[in-house]
Design a protein that fits this description.
Thrombin, subunit H, alpha+beta, Cytochrome Bc1 Complex, Chain D, domain 2, 4-stranded antiparallel β-sheet, 11 helices
């Protein structure tokens, strides 16, 4: 080989290596960060992991899929990543300084969160409402526990794995061999954003929101935090173990105050030295305190702060800014912001992406108390009811409907008073959230985001356990018993108001029928949420018009609705 050819080959290799090292323009959407020794791993929702050393991104690992959660294991060094779109737990290991995917484990569909206890791994799944338990020492050992709610955050405690409902304020404790749901705990709130078990104090810390559904959304009520509060709840181990103790009752700390609220609290952790950190996703701040009796102070972060990572010496915190594709660096010794780290070049956000950011921005509301997401969790529903002016008057709280698939189910509001989504969004900003203004460009962006939301998979589809024969009989019941008069066609709704024997506190008897697409993924039903299950809709409330179905027809109808 000639010297010239050798030089050209070497030069070409150098240029190729340099180009390969250049960060790619992409939306990353960081949601969590974990540490192994002095290396931080930033989980990006869009399918990659950014590796951070000495305050700089040194590598980006492609994993693929839609990533939702990560845990780091030190011995041996491993990362366990939840891939929500491929329904897998992905295992990454290091060899000679290079990290790569070395295993993929199937879990219940639509996984969201992961926790580890020794060799046991628990993965909670959203739409399939399940907890999958795997044994790291025996890959073939997989067990599944059904949950009575949408699977959200999961944490490890001495009593077992604790999994939070995504939306409603319930906790489930899973323990035993074989594993089972040993108890549920109803919290006075909804939207659990973070779980952290403090091993020193034997307490579970929970960030969540508390909506007062009977309090009308007047300016004064919103301003003083009377409609919705954002809290950090501390639950003692005894309560998790089913042994309530008057010596250590649950404690609630309020986050934010009038004129400076703290909408949508997210991640929470306690450092080894006892400092508590809480990311406030809706107002772009990080709250911190030195101990459980100290008052919270706050730092400013980037847009929609999520996961928090702490250096080994506890002097530096890294906060994931989901909508900025960056990390905020905080000097915890000097208690000041020390800069930010970009994860790479990002394209200009689309109209839908701008709408997603506004949908999750609590500053759209008065003082930042709550966002659209606060009531419509992940675009779905928190299962709470609220007394707003959605129907034009106060005094009869209504159930918050899902927004999944909402774009083609006109008209909107329980009384059908909004003929366009733009009207409904403006009314929500000005009357429910008491925002200062509903700018046309912001309304258009939020509507574009809402129009992108598709109906969820049914519970039967997510679990893969439908009884097709019973569902077919149930469809016949649905069609012959007149259900299609209100819930017709592919959208399973109609654009007209109907009197089905229900009356609200103001005397209204005609309601806009909600679409039944995804009805199996809801936990409350009818206009005021009076029914807590689909079975109650028919057995307890005789819907519609005091109808009494024969037992066999009811069972078949319920099977059909579980597939919607």
């Amino acid at each position: 080989m000639s010297l010239r050819i050798l030089l050209l080959l070497l030069l070409g290799s150098t240029v190729a290596d340099a180009n390969a090292a250049e960060p790619v323009e992409r939306a990353r959407r960081p949601v969590d960060v974990v540490r192994i020794d002095d290396t931080f791993f930033v989980l990006n929702r869009t399918g990659s992991i950014s590796v951070l050393r000495d305050g700089a991104v040194v590598e980006e690992i492609e994993v693929g899929g839609r990533l939702t959660d990560v845990v780091a294991l030190a011995d041996p060094q491993r990362l366990l990543v939840v891939d929500g779109s491929r329904h897998q737990l992905v295992e990454l290991t290091e060899s000679d300084g290079d990290w790569s995917v070395t295993g993929r484990h199937d879990v219940a569909r639509h996984p969201r969160s992961v926790a580890v206890d020794g060799e046991k791994v628990a993965v909670s799944s959203y739409w399939s409402r399940r907890l999958t338990l795997l044994d790291l020492g025996d890959p073939k050992s997989v067990e599944t526990v059904d949950l009575p709610f949408l699977g959200g955050r999961v944490a490890t405690t001495p009593t077992g794995f604790v999994v939070a409902a995504a939306g409603t304020g319930r906790l489930g404790v899973v323990a035993g061999s074989p594993p089972r749901l040993v108890r549920t705990i109803d919290l006075p709130g909804h939207n659990v954003g973070g779980l952290f078990y403090d091993t020193k104090r034997n307490e579970l810390l929970v960030t969540q929101q508390v909506l007062k559904g009977e309090t009308s959304t007047t300016y004064e009520n919103v301003f003083w935090g009377g409609v919705l509060k954002n809290v950090l709840q501390t639950i003692p181990l005894d309560l998790l173990a089913g042994k309530p103790s008057t010596d250590a009752p649950p404690r609630i700390d309020f986050l934010g105050f009038p004129s400076d609220a703290a909408g949508d609290p997210a991640d929470v952790l306690v450092t080894p030295s006892g400092r508590t950190l809480v990311s406030i996703a809706g107002t772009d701040t990080l709250h911190f305190r030195d101990g459980p009796k100290s008052a919270f102070e706050s730092f400013t972060t980037g847009r929609r702060p999520a996961g928090i990572g702490i250096s080994a010496d506890e002097r530096t915190a890294y906060v994931c800014n989901t909508f900025d594709d960056s990390l905020t660096v905080l000097d915890l010794g000097k208690l000041e912001q020390a800069g930010s780290i970009s994860l790479g070049p990002s394209p200009e956000p689309s109209l839908v992406e701008r709408g997603e950011s506004l949908f999750h921005d609590a500053r759209v509301s008065l003082d930042g108390w709550y966002s659209c997401h606060s009531c419509h969790t992940n675009g779905h529903t928190s299962g709470q009811h609220v007394d707003n002016l959605g129907d034009g008057y106060f005094g009869d709280p209504k159930l918050t409907p899902t927004l999944l698939g909402v774009h083609d189910t006109q008209p909107w509001a329980w009384n059908g008073s909004s003929k366009t989504l733009e009207q409904q969004v403006k009314k929500s900003i000005l009357k429910t959230m008491r925002g200062d203004a509903a700018r046309e460009e912001d309304v258009a962006a939020i509507v574009a985001y809402m129009q992108s939301l598709t109906p969820p998979p049914s519970l039967a589809e997510a679990r893969g356990d439908a009884d097709r024969a019973a569902a077919a009989r149930g469809r016949h019941v649905f069609e012959t018993r007149g259900c299609v008069e209100c819930h017709a066609g592919e959208r399973l709704t109609t654009p007209t108001l109907h009197d089905v024997g229900l009356t609200d506190e103001s005397g209204t008897t005609e309601f806009n029928p909600p679409s039944l697409r995804g009805v199996s993924q809801r936990d409350r039903f009818l206009h005021d949420g009076r029914a807590k299950s689909l079975r109650e809709v028919f057995e307890k409330h005789g819907h519609p018009n005091d109808t009494k179905l024969p037992a066999r027809e009811l069972e078949d109808l319920l099977e059909y609705l579980q597939g919607r």
